[in-house]
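WP5 quarterly update. Target: Exodeoxyribonuclease III. Source organism: Desulfofustis limnaeus. Length: 259 aa.
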Amino acid sequence: MRLLSWNVNGLRAIYGKGFAAAVANLQPDILALQETKLQPDQRSPEMVELHDYRSYWDYSTEKKGYSGVAVYARPKPEQVRAGFGIERYDKEGRVLQLDYGPFILFNVYFPNGQRDEERLQYKLDFYRDFFAHADRLRAQGRSLIITGDFNTAHNEIDLKHPRANQDRSGFLRIERDVLDDIVARGYVDTFRHLYPDTVTYSWWSYRFNARKSNAGWRIDYFFVSRDLIERKVVRDAFILNDIHGSDHCPVGLDLDLSL
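Structure tokens (predicted):
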């Protein structure tokens, strides 16, 4: 099974940049999107019924043109849930939970903390409360896959200019400590686990020709509960730098569910 995750920075905008053709070429079994920036009545029939995928959606009820996540999937989940039960977060349309039996998939658009101190605290609170929810599922014996835009580069290898950005939200020590903590609690960054020394990025600012000069950040992840690593369910993780259309590129995960 191949899973892809992509912050599209506006689904309507990326449709004009060859999105449907890219999906047809990539052929994921499951595609998780962040920042769709749509309301239900803004979706075209093609968006809802893309190729041979079922689609699942979560929307911002707070304001239009903001946030939003979607999942396109060939395998039908046993259950789908939007949000994770806390209205403070759920109203921004940031989480889809799909139960596939052998694993639960979370598609998450984690908050950006750059606006001000209040928004940074919201981001930190979201991390805390979302992973408390994830921990409760793991305590029930569930295997988890958590993908999306985490809006934090974990270590210096994960961005081009770490020193210049050490005081910027997205690479603050307090944010990186959260990722340290979830790793210590048994969540595995699949790409870094498989490729500990590989320098590659998943997001580039639209400013200063950052993508052309590859001055990027790795902030899009597939984290899994450690049991999926130990059982050798995870076959590969990858980042598709050559796919354009957004300021992010897709990241992926290959699973072997026959084990």
